[in-house]
Amino acid sequence: MEDEQIIGLFMERSEDAISETSKKYGKYCHSIAWRILENEEDAEECVSDTYLRVWNSIPPKCPDCLRTFLGKIVRNLSLDRWEKRSADKRGGGAVTLILDELEECIPAADDAETAEEDMVIKDILNRFLAELPQKTRKMFIRRYWYMSSAKEIAADLGASESMVNVTLFRTREKLKKMFEKEGISL
Amino acid sequence: MNSKQILRVIGEIDESYIEEAAPMEAIHSKKKSLSPALVRLGAAAACLCLIVVSAFAVLLNMNRNTVQTWTPGYTGGQYFRYSDSSVWQAADSMACLDSAAIPYAMTRYFSDKRSTLEADGVIPVIDTHPLFSLTARYKEDGSLFYVELLWSRRGVRGVDGYSDLRVIAGVEAVPLIDDCVLVETDENGKVKEPGVTATNRGGTLISARGGEKTEKSLTYQRENGWYQVSGSWNDSYDNVVRLLDWFFEHPIDFSLFPMDAGDEYTLSSLADVPAAFSGILPDFASFGFLEEVDYVTLKNGVPVRFEGHYAAHVDEALIKGGNYYEEDGYSSIHWCVLAEPDVYDLERSLGDIQTLTREQVTEILLNKDNKITFLQGEYLIIVYPGYKNPENIDEAWELIASLKER
Disulfide-capable partner of B387 in A164, B114, B319, B392 (CB 3.0 to 4.6 Å)? Predict the structure, then answer.
């Protein structure tokens, strides 16, 4: 079913919207949740919660791209759950590794962050990504948005695993410099 | 700012970049197919801290000119009269900038005390909702920060009968935590005010957010603590207001929830607690399945849940590294053991393991569901074969059958 038709079902408050979304994007959502949570039941819950969140969001929202809309929600919900699980119990898994990597992008620690600062950082990230070569940008997004492994990225983008790792390392360094240049007190 | 926050903000980058980098096909998943059972709308995972913090953002931001006055017989619809669900739903799907900023340090659970708390008049009796959890969060010094009470009901088909009624209550006022505020900005980058209705009930200001067919909440703060009462999208206003009325008349005695009286859940692995579920788990290795990862959940130090992922027909090093998904011909299986299944887990059960047959399991996995749920003694077992093909299903059956002989 086309995305427009699925969104139409949400607009009509038809329960078929959920099943059609699951058919088309269930695997996609599940893979994002699984990568973050590495726990089957948690991933299933997050995907289900994503459908609920979409049900609650459309209407009034009418996303341009349903896949990305779902992906952003399931990613956020999965990170929420991961954080809560980490706070309650013991973390680990791919997110821990990725967080360690992203620490390299942080020039200094300070706790005076605000929502407005995050808007600025989002803007910097968008500008930073716009300036990257397409292949490097894809690598960065695949790693830090989709949380793919270096091996998977290498396979999909026709590069060696070590090349992916080196590229990601250099990109993180560039991002750190850009944050510093922009005077962001992170 | 920390790496978690960067990870969050990356989630909000330009969508064109996300699309550009999307894998050629959906990113490889450990589970090869999703059954219609997944359509079950799970617990509304609205982040607790989001709710709390955004609620106080609402209280701080709302337009005082719209305050209504409560009178006896005041209806649920009146509480939400001016609430603009579109504003708050749009905001809800926007950024949670860093939920990890909520400063609780420890968690304990009082979920097993439902009947006692009902009998003592601490919580209302809600017979229509079989699931209940009571989660208590504590600060570094061990003092209580807030409690979350959740009554849940799930329908047979997921949507039917779904309900989450939730109360979050804390001892002390929650400051507006800047990096955790739900925000929606207008075209000029100005943060929009959430659309809310405010009601003055005996000097207490109650803010109402949400609307019909969306999540909805009522928030207030009094001398004896702050409260947020909420319902899921298909809970009526009146259901939420009934819960509000109870807690308005029966403020929570927070001293009932000292940290040392609650249940503590911790996560471990079989390597750390090798005796956990001894005799309950199959001998995976003898069937060629090697462990990729496992988790054992301990309740006050006692194992209550196991979840393990195993793979076969592929190099061991690849399995241990979680790098076998691109290999041809591998099988995988996900095995869960629950010592404390809930009523819905039990409803899904096919019965005692001794009654299971190969034909029954094969038929279900091929045509009906992606998992097999059954009882093994006092435990509930859920088995997810990785592939929906006869070979993997046969292997799943052999593992199950090996337990029948014990």
Answer: B392
ipTM for the predicted complex? 0.73
User: Where do we find the tokens 């629950």?
Assistant: B338
Which of residues 61 through 120 in chain A touch B, CB cutoff 8 A? 61, 64-65, 67-68, 71-73, 75-77, 79-81, 83-85, 87-90, 95, 98-103, 105-106, 109-110, 113-115, 117-119
| C-alpha distance from B202 to closest chain A C-alpha (Å) | 33
Which pLDDT does position B362 carry in this prediction? 92
B positions 196-235 inside 8 Å of A (CB): 213-215, 232-233
Taking only the tens place, the pLDDT of each residue in B295-336 is 888 999 999 999 888 989 888 888 877 667 667 788 888 899
Q: String of b and e for B61-84 (b: at least 16 CB within 10 Å)?
A: ebeeeeebebeeeeebebbbeebb
Position A103 scores a pLDDT of: 61
B5, B10, B388, best to mutate vs chain A, most A CBs in 10 Å:
B10
Specify the DSSP class assigned to residue B231: E
- The C-alpha atoms of residue B201 and residue B71 are separated, in whole angstroms, by 8
Task: Please answer whether residues B230 and B51 qualify as being in contact, where contact means their C-beta atoms are separated by less than 8 angstroms.
Answer: yes
Is there a contact between B113 and B132 (Cβ–Cβ < 8 Å)? no
Confidence of residue B123 (pLDDT cuts 50, 70, 90): very high
